[in-house]
From TrEMBL:
<keyword id="KW-0012">Acyltransferase</keyword>
<dbReference type="Pfam" id="PF04204">
    <property type="entry name" value="HTS"/>
</dbReference>
<feature type="binding site">
    <location>
        <position position="249"/>
    </location>
    <ligand>
        <name>substrate</name>
    </ligand>
</feature>
<feature type="binding site">
    <location>
        <position position="163"/>
    </location>
    <ligand>
        <name>substrate</name>
    </ligand>
</feature>
<dbReference type="GO" id="GO:0004414">
    <property type="term" value="F:homoserine O-acetyltransferase activity"/>
</dbReference>
<keyword id="KW-0028">Amino-acid biosynthesis</keyword>
<comment type="similarity">
    <text>Belongs to the MetA family.</text>
</comment>
<keyword id="KW-0963">Cytoplasm</keyword>
<feature type="active site">
    <location>
        <position position="237"/>
    </location>
</feature>
<dbReference type="GO" id="GO:0019281">
    <property type="term" value="P:L-methionine biosynthetic process from homoserine via O-succinyl-L-homoserine and cystathionine"/>
</dbReference>
<comment type="pathway">
    <text>Amino-acid biosynthesis; L-methionine biosynthesis via de novo pathway; O-acetyl-L-homoserine from L-homoserine: step 1/1.</text>
</comment>
<dbReference type="InterPro" id="IPR029062">
    <property type="entry name" value="Class_I_gatase-like"/>
</dbReference>
<dbReference type="InterPro" id="IPR033752">
    <property type="entry name" value="MetA_family"/>
</dbReference>
<keyword id="KW-0808">Transferase</keyword>
<feature type="binding site">
    <location>
        <position position="192"/>
    </location>
    <ligand>
        <name>substrate</name>
    </ligand>
</feature>
<feature type="active site" description="Acyl-thioester intermediate">
    <location>
        <position position="142"/>
    </location>
</feature>
<dbReference type="GO" id="GO:0005737">
    <property type="term" value="C:cytoplasm"/>
</dbReference>
Length: 318
């Protein structure tokens, strides 16, 4: 089944070229089914690239999904034209009254800044607080995961001696967990970050479970046991070329660029990178949509808003 997006979103053409079924809003209005409503808070600088990556993964299920895109209006976007944002994105004020089955908060290249120094931090805090009553399950990615844990629980981040960059062998700690149904014992997981959350701070949180870990990259995925909050410290959504693009960007900027590990064949950056995480990414996002969102949320969110209470148990959803 398709992902439903705003008509004429440029990502549609790329997705269709990949033989992925995307339905525009006009066609979707003719169908009489209960779609899932998702909100993507896109904090990445290359908006269109990130949209395409996430929509590609969301499309790989038999569910129809309505997707709204949001950017923080308190931030001046430099890499995307304002006309594009006006056409395809919402501000927080425009979605404040809505209820969503799922929320995805992307990463952002801000790890080395203090959270409070981020120009849209107050808006981010407002979105997190709003999500407790208006969103059923939230998926935080990379910086979005670190920022979410800090905003909700005061979990601090720590500067790493060197950027963690590459594709790392990651564990599946609980094969019975819904998010890892169908997974092998290990999976490949791209990471690209300068900071990390302290594992000991997360272990003391009530009702949290560490789901994946890497010997070289550290924490991979943690989640609340009721699946209302899920935190990915890497980038399963990345395309084949994304780590290479970031590496070349850092070199061009004169930074101490770290060549992505386990990415280029024979560690030769002149060879095209190998993608080894596509199946894990597709399965993880499908499991999230199925078990944390579709199986749990009520039929009409705004009429059953009590289901969105922060402490509601998804196992008891009607």
């Amino acid at each position: 089944m398709p992902v439903k997006v705003v008509k004429n979103l440029p990502a549609i053409e790329q997705l269709r070229a990949d033989n992925i079924f995307v339905m525009d809003s006009e066609r979707a209005e003719q169908q009489n089914i209960r779609p899932l409503n998702l909100l993507i808070v896109n904090l990445m600088p290359r908006k269109m690239v990130t949209e395409t990556q996430i929509l590609r993964l969301l499309s790989n299920t038999p569910l129809q999904i309505n997707v709204d895109l949001l950017y923080p209006s308190s931030h001046v976007v430099k890499n995307t034209q304002q006309s594009y944002l006006d056409s395809f994105y919402h501000s927080f004020s425009e979605v404040r009254a809505k209820y969503y089955d799922g929320l995805i908060i992307t990463g952002a290249p801000l790890e080395q800044m203090a959270f409070e120094a981020v120009d849209y931090w107050l808006e981010f805090l407002e979105i997190i607080e709003w999500s407790k009553r208006h969103v059923y399950s939230t998926l935080h990615i990379c910086w979005g995961a670190q920022a979410g844990l800090y905003a909700r629980y005061g979990i601090t981040k720590q500067q790493l001696p060197q950027k963690v960059c590459g594709v790392f062998k990651s564990t599946v700690e609980n094969h019975r967990h819904p998010l890892f149904r169908g997974f092998d014992d290990y999976f490949s997981f791209p990471h690209s970050r300068y900071t990390a959350c302290a594992e000991e701070q997360i272990r003391i949180l009530d009702d949290f479970e560490i789901l994946s870990h890497s010997q070289h990259a550290g924490l991979g995925i943690v989640a609340k046991k009721n699946l209302r909050e899920i935190y990915l410290f890497g980038h399963l959504e990345y395309d084949r070329e994304t780590l290479e693009w970031e590496y070349q960007r850092d070199k061009a900027a004169g930074l101490t660029a770290v060549r992505p590990q386990n990415y280029f064949p024979e560690d030769d950056e002149q060879q095209p990178p190998v993608k080894t995480w596509a199946s894990a990414a597709s399965l993880f996002f499908s499991n999230w949509l199925n078990y944390a969102v579709y199986q749990a949320t009520p039929y009409v969110g705004e009429r059953l808003s009590s289901h969105y209470e922060e402490d509601y148990d998804f196992n008891q959803a009607e």
